């Protein structure tokens, strides 16, 4: 499990692509992966991956075909910057909301507005996922727990403070980019349960 509090930004050093599998070599900031062992879970842009090898501050991860299909990881290349979060431990503070690291879909950035000391990103999701979007609800974008601002159909926005921009890859994101999305599990459960009872949420 993860908390959606991004612990930093790491850099992809190499990508080895084979049929149905990609191996990522990622360099992490000094000291950020101390104590990590083979088999540990780390969220890479919100996607839970398993450490397969380690050398100093560099970790290796394998992503299979289904993961590459469902996420933006297949677009990573040497030099790409990614959000990371190590798996939560019992007793850790939950500063965001609980995440599984299983990506539901991707979204496209349709606008970026950045007045002084503010940044608003607007995203467009596939239509089938709009039923889980609620103003002031939770959503995870590239592994970061964020509060939804406005919702209009299958579009929603988030408002980012300077610290979030400093500590994540959102400083780099531009219109047209794609991001990984994990919807809030409690919201999904409630919406799906009501739908099974015949209370379908109206679209729009």
UniProtKB/TrEMBL annotation:
Domain Lumazine-binding, first and last residues per copy: 1-97, 98-194
First and last residues of every Lumazine-binding repeat: 1-97, 98-194
Gene3D superfamilies: 2.40.30.20
Signal peptide bounds: none
Family matches, as SUPFAM superfamilies: Riboflavin synthase domain-like
Its EC number(s): 2.5.1.9
PROSITE patterns named among the record's database cross-references: LUMAZINE_BIND (PS51177)
UniProt protein name: Riboflavin synthase
Keywords annotated in UniProt: Repeat
Pfam families: Lum_binding
Taxonomic placement: Bacteria, Pseudomonadati, Pseudomonadota, Gammaproteobacteria, Pseudomonadales
């Amino acid at each position: 499990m993860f908390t959606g509090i991004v612990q930093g930004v790491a850099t992809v050093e190499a990508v080895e692509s084979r049929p149905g599998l990609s191996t990522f070599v990622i360099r992490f900031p000094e000291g950020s992966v101390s104590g990590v062992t083979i088999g540990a879970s780390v969220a890479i842009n919100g996607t839970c991956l398993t450490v397969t090898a380690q050398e100093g501050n560099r970790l290796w991860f394998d992503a299979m075909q289904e993961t590459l299909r469902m996420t933006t990881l297949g677009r990573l290349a040497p030099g790409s910057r990614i959000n990371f979060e190590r798996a939560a431990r019992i007793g850790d503070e939950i500063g965001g909301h609980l995440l599984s690291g299983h990506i539901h879909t991707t979204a496209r950035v349709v606008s970026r507005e950045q007045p002084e000391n503010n940044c608003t990103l607007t995203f467009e999701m596939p239509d089938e996922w709009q039923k889980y979007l609620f103003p002031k609800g939770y959503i995870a974008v590239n592994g970061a727990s964020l509060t939804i601002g406005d919702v209009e159909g299958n579009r929603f926005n988030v408002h980012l403070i300077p610290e979030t921009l400093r500590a994540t890859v959102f400083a780099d994101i531009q219109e047209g980019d794609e991001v990984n999305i994990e919807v809030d599990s409690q919201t999904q459960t409630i919406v799906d349960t009501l739908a099974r009872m015949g209370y379908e949420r109206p679209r729009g």
